[in-house]
Amino acid sequence: ADAALLSPQAFNGELIKSVLCVIEETDLNAGFKGKEAYNRIKDWVTGRTIQIHVKGKTPFEIPNTTHWIQVNNSIDACPIFEGDTRIVSASIDMLTGGQEIPKNTLLHSLEEESAQFLGLCLKVIIPEPDSRLRIPVIMSTDKMQMLAM
User: Fold this and answer.
1) CA quadruple 17, 92, 72, 141: dihedral, nearest 10
2) What pTM does this model have?
3) Residues 53, 13: Cα–Cα separation, whole Å
4) C-beta separation of 6 from 26 below 8 A
5) Mean of the per-residue pLDDT values of the chain
6) What does the angle CA 62 – CA 117 – CA 46 come to, to the nearest 5 degrees?
7) Residue spans of the chain under pLDDT 70
8) How far is Cα 89 from Cα 148, in angstroms, rounded to an integer?
9) Residue 89: C-alpha distances to residues 10, 111, 114, 129 (Å)
10) Per-residue model confidence (pLDDT) at position 136
């Protein structure tokens, strides 16, 4: 998703049929590029449709199936303003020595668990949505601290 957010020409063909879009270490609070990316993601998070612009083709609209996750080491990378209804913020505590799972073990465990996880997801009864976001945004302690900043 980083490429679509930061494309100077607003190309975003990567988002066609995307469900989970991950933004890694992109500062949405820094300079022109950050502000432009922030404005794009605001539209993409809440819009029922999303305009797709593939390089060399005419832009077109599709139903918006995207859901967004941003991960960053800086608390300032994702600005949150009073009244925000799009962002849930959660910090992840640092692991202490001996808590890390070796990458190969983790990947193997995730692969073994995937069928059970998918089965659980398919059994969940989802209530009728009130908006495009499907569920209300959680007001976490981390989000309240970010708003106070």
Assistant:
1) 90
2) 0.69
3) 6
4) yes
5) 84
6) 30
7) 31-32, 131-136
8) 13
9) 27, 27, 25, 21
10) 66
